[in-house]
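Sequence in, structure out.
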Amino acid sequence: MKHKSKRTLTLFIATLLLTAAASAQMNMPKPGPEHKKLDYFTGKWTCDGDTKPGPMGPGGKMTLSDDNKWMEGGYFVVMHSEFKSASMGNGSGIAFLGYDADERKYTYNEFNSMGESTFSKGTVDGDAWTWIGDMKMNPPGKGRFSEKILSPSSYTFKFEMSSDGTNWTPIMDGKCTKSK
C-alpha cells in the first residue's frame, strides 16, 4: 500500500510540474511595440564621422561598419562593429540594444576591443534617439549619443561628453547609411 501511494504522489507531483512548465511557456511575454522600434537598426550599416580634437585624441576621420541582427526571441538587437580611426586606432565591439519596460527606457550595452564597456539608457522622440551613460574618465562624467533618423536607410549622429551632465562638449559627429 505504501508503494502505491508513493507512486501516486510522485505521479501527482510530476503532473503538477509539467502543467506549471507548459503554463509558463504559454504565458511567456512577447516583445512589445517598443522592441519593434529597434528593428530600424538591424541590417548592415556603414558610418563615416569626424572626431574632434580633445580627450579622445587629435581628431580626424573615422569609419564604422555594423552588422546588426535580432537575437532569437526578438528582445535584443546584437550589433557587431568594426571601426577605423586616425585618432583612436582600429578595433571592434559587440553591443546589445534592448528595452527596459520597468524604466520605460531603451538600453545599450557595449564591450569593445579597447577594454571599454558602456552602459547607456535611451529615449526616442519621433525621429530622434538620445542615449546617456556614465563615462569612465578622470574625473568621471557622462556621454550623450544622439541619432536623428533621416530616412529608412540613413541617420546622422553626434557624440558629446560632459563632466557635470549639463555642459556638453562635441567629440564626434557623422552619418550612417544602411546597405541594400
